[in-house]
Write a structure and sequence with these properties.
By secondary structure, the chain is α/β, with parallel strands linked by helices. It has 7 helices and 9 strands, in the order H-H-H-E-E-H-E-H-E-H-E-E-H-E-E-E. A hairpin with a 5-residue loop joins strand 8 (187-194) and strand 9 (200-208).
Length: 216
């Protein structure tokens, strides 16, 4: 088994092990295909490429990380993306999660608060062929109202609470996945859903550890 296949097997095993909390015991074919297609190495700094197939977060500079592959897979899975969906990503980071989203959704907007990371991720996405992702630099906790509403929202850093602007920009029938909790304390991955009437529900999914959401 090659390294990529071994990583995918590890992700699938972790999906089974956490299914009692997440409600998902395996990756859908679409998410598995997206993970297989998007090369994680293309979104890593040179000094981290050696660890590309390790199932753990890796530093990308500026105090930020590229998420653990299992967490990328799980958060993407929980969004239940459809081919015509419009998605907002809060925290472009390396651009890896952005590329995975674009494999599954029609339109992806991504907001990064750190200008240097925004430039790096834009370059990486362009080199990987993701030329139609819409990138913004700004405070992601405010969302991107000019392009709202969104069918799905994913937040890749931990907020102390769920930003009201993001809930407002979620389309009725939409889903948001966001880690919530203090940087130095317990954090939970939360699934937020908004029904057709606009009523919002929140469900804690799994204990996680993320860098803090700047501005959140």
């Amino acid at each position: 088994m090659d390294e990529h296949a071994a990583l995918m097997a590890e992700i699938q095993a972790e999906m089974r092990e956490t299914a009692r909390w997440t409600g998902r015991d395996r990756l859908s074919p679409g998410v598995a295909a997206a993970l297989a297609k998007v090369g994680r190495a293309s979104f890593l700094p040179d000094d981290a490429v050696h660890a590309v197939y390790q199932n753990r977060p890796l530093p990308i500079g500026h105090g930020q990380t590229i998420s653990q592959p299992f967490i990328v897979a799980l958060m993407t899975e929980l969004l239940d993306l459809q081919p015509d969906d419009r998605v907002l990503e809060v925290g472009t980071g390396s651009g890896y999660q952005t590329a995975v989203l674009r494999e599954l959704a029609h339109e992806v907007h991504s907001v990064e608060v750190i200008p240097a990371l925004a430039r790096t991720s834009a370059s990486a996405l362009a080199k990987a062929g993701y030329l139609d992702v819409v990138l913004h630099t700004g405070n992601g906790a405010l969302g991107w109202p000019e392009a709202a509403p969104f069918d799905a929202i994913i937040v890749t850093a931990a907020a102390r609470g769920i930003p009201p602007a993001l809930v407002e920009q979620l389309r009725p029938g939409g889903r948001m996945v966001i880690p919530v909790g203090p940087h130095d304390g317990d954090q939970e991955l939360v699934l937020v859903t908004k029904n057709a009437a606009g009523d919002v529900t929140r469900r804690k999914v799994l204990a996680v550890a993320f860098v803090p959401l700047t501005g959140g």
